Amino acid sequence: MDGAVSAPAAGLYQFRVVTDDGAYLILNINGADLIAVDAFRDQAPTTFTSAPVYLDAAAYSIRFDYYEAGGGATARLLWKKPGDAAFSVIPPRTSTTRTGGVGSGLLGEYRANAGHLPGSSLTYLDFTQDAQSVR
Prior knowledge:
Blueprint: E1 2-6, E2 11-20, E3 22-29, E4 32-39, E5 46-49, E6 53-55, E7 59-67, E8 73-80, E9 88-89, E10 95-97, E11 107-111, E12 122-126, E13 133-134
Antiparallel strand pairs: 1-7, 1-10, 2-5, 2-6, 2-8, 3-4, 3-7, 8-9, 8-13, 11-12
């Protein structure tokens, strides 16, 4: 999933990924890619949390790469804004995919077990929902 998130206020943000199997989360901050989560390996559902990162009130490019090796599949993306006590879903009004307009939310693609082969089943993941489990 390639897109952008808009930080509503300046401060320290954290990002959380829950994945089965692997995932990368990359943020582009001031023209430099920051790998916020590096968990690209086969695993049961596992939670990974980025180190706190300072963001100005601005839009930032975000990339979430995910793969599923077999069995159950989970892909969740959350953030914790300055002053928040808990992680929450990134709301559509502050996010967009590269093919959508502002406020379109974060939408990804998942191809079940067959990679990008013709005829593989395709499911769209809306990362603005509370949970993403693909079966």
